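seq as requested:
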Amino acid sequence: MIVYNITFRKLEDNHNEYKQLHKWCQNKFVYEWFEQRILSYDEIVNKYKTKLKEKKQELLIIKCNNKDIGLVQIYRYDDITYEYDLFIGEEEYLDKGIGKNIVNKVNNYIHDKYKINFIILRPFKRNIRAIKCYEKCGFKYINEYLGKDTLGNPEIIVVLRWSYENN
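struct tokens:
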């Protein structure tokens, strides 16, 4: 049995980091859910330089067995709840159960660091793979609403809630 050691490190403001993000965001299995289009290198740089400068989100590179494989963006939803987005950018790490390990690690990281008990996720309803993973990690369906993707197209958004007390 393969052991997947999931860790995180802070995203750094440098060319190699942006180059890696750009590479990942070229993959359909990333941009279909994350941006809905391929971003240019300059768009990646501008987006993440701004996020790093504003410090409204915690940006972490996801590592599996010491290899960079994806990104998680953590941000405050309200006073007692946090939210995050994540993606795995390396195709060979998909469909291996690693997502469940990552989600559980992120949940525990947020709880331990920010001392909160609730996390909200808002995936597209059609992102069945992600929703199943989140549910396996203890997220519960709250509701859904008609929202928009990053291009402004209508998209049904599912609201899922995780509670530390229930896990």
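Residues 98-114 form the longest helix (17 residues).
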